[in-house]
Amino acid sequence: MSERPVEGERSFEPRIVAFFCNWCTYTAADLAGTARMTYAPNIRIIRLMCSGRLDPQFVLAAFRHGADGVLIGGCHPGDCHYQEGNYKALRRYLLLKRLLREMGIEEERLRLEWISASEGDRVQKVANEFTETIRRLGPLRLAPRPGVIRLPVAALPEPSPAAREGALP
User: Fold this and answer.
1) What is the chain's Cα-based Rg?
2) pLDDT tens for residues 30-77?
3) Does 134 fall in a domain?
4) How many domains does the chain have?
5) Sign of the alpha-carbon dihedral angle for 77, 83, 50, 101
6) What is the tens place of the pLDDT at every residue in 141-152?
7) CATH assignment at residue 131
8) Given the DSSP bridges, would you call strands 43-48 and 110-114 parallel, antiparallel or unpaired?
9) Residue 9 burial by CB count (10 A; 0-12/13-18/19+): exposed, middle or buried?
10) Structural domain of 100
């Protein structure tokens, strides 16, 4: 017999936003669906032409608008349709992990995976694992910590022209 939540208490279902590369991870997710593989329905996929075009502000906006976790999927290193886009994605991912830590958000709420177009089974596995990780962490609460000044994401400066072009350090 399965346990039911106590009346008035709702079970937590994570809200996850996934930014997937059009050429690899998104195609793999499509393959998983075509093959009738099931994965957690908590994930909302946003297709990008390249994982390297994911602006860090989109990730922060996802958290600000209620996402409990963000999954980024790109081509395997060396297989990027745009040559070096996944390396840019990796640099931005590492920057975002540091920023989340500074904001008091668990780093596990952000995940980067390399998944090729033929790996539909891997999309299924990663989606289910990530959903369970977020379920274990619980809902994201962006409560202020003592001694930490928080700026709203809207208060962040606009990216420089170099950043818009993808030229990050």
Assistant:
1) 17
2) 999 999 999 999 999 999 999 999 999 999 999 999 999 999 999 999
3) yes
4) 1
5) positive
6) 875 555 555 556
7) 3.40.50
8) unpaired
9) exposed
10) 16-140
108 within a domain of the structure (yes/no): yes
Residues paired with residue 111 on neighbouring β-strands, in sequence order: 71
Helix (H) or strand (E) holding 133: helix 120-137
Phi-psi region of 108 (alpha: psi -120 to 50; beta: other; left: phi over 0): alpha
* Type of residue found at 72: I
Q: Would you put residue 121 in left (φ > 0), alpha (ψ -120 to 50) or beta? A: alpha
Return d(Cα 85, Cα 161) in angstroms, integer: 17
Structure tokens at 122: 């891997």
d(CA 124, CA 18): 13
Is residue 99 a part of any domain in this protein? yes
What tokens does 90 get? 């990796």
Distance CA 138, CA 130 (A): 12
Tokens of 81: 């349709």
Residue 90 included in any domain: yes
- Measure the CA–CA gap between 57 and 103, rounded to whole angstroms: 14
